[in-house]
Amino acid sequence: LVNNATYGFRVLAGCRAFLMPQQISTVARCFETMPVRYMLADEVGLGKTVEACSILSILASENKDLRVLIVAPGALVSQWQNELHYKYSMDVQVASFQAKLCILPMEDLDKAELVLNAQWDLAIIDETHRLLNNDGWYQQIKAVSRKVQHILLLSATPIQDRNEEYRRLLVLLNPEQYGDMTPQRFAWMVKKQKSIQQKVNQQL
């Protein structure tokens, strides 16, 4: 059953994390397209860290040489280390550009040139919304996003109708598609999308 189940299920079945149905659904959806480039935007306490660790674990099972950079606020570094160590049997080193699994405190972005310029396959950015208030951090993560194959952005802060914040987050997620898009063009696109959604909802 496990051998013929959804991609990555064997890895999840072997970890020490108990995933809720919605978390399994989120992880499965992230593997519907490759590369994996998604924003996990569940509310606080719904397990974004576990989802991201599960995706990391599945990718690592497919690529034994996978190099992963995690950027998180300093106060959350130990939480990430504990999750990966106790639930996924992975040890993460702090601010080490030579490590296969590295975590970098967000507050150290300005002095982490060696880490940011290293070759990474997956980048995980926790509390991504904090970057919107610091253009230096934002530009550094944008540069990382252009280089990595896979990226996960984690944020529990709702964007609502603030188009510019929404656009800047999408630039981090997919700089090739949104990097050169003007705020005016993006606002026009969002307006058209809402119009389409309204018409579809009426038909349904």
Structural account:
With 204 residues, the protein is an alpha/beta fold. 47% of the residues lie in helices and 12% in strands. It is built from nine helices and six strands; from the N terminus they run ααβαβαββαβαβααα. A six-stranded parallel β-sheet has the order 1-6-5-2-4-3, with helices on both faces. The termini are far apart. The model has no long low-confidence stretch (mean pLDDT 87).
Query: Termini separation (Å)?
Result: 37 Å
What is the gyration radius calculated from CA atoms? Answer: 18 Å
Gross morphology: globular
Measured by DSSP, the beta-strand proportion falls in 5-15%
Query: How much helix, percentage-wise, in residues?
Result: 40-55%
Uncertain regions: pLDDT < 50 for 5+ in a row? none
Count of helical stretches? 9
What's the rounded overall pLDDT mean?
A: 87
Main beta sheet: 6 strands, parallel
Q: What's the order of the H and E elements?
A: HHEHEHEEHEHEHHH
Counting helices, strands and paired strands, the structural category is alpha/beta
**How many beta-strand segments?**
6
Oligomer: single chain
Strand order of the largest sheet: 1-6-5-2-4-3
Short structural summary:
The chain is 47% helix and 12% strand. The chain is built from nine helices and six strands. Strand 5, helix 6 (135-147) and strand 6 (150-154) form a beta-alpha-beta unit.
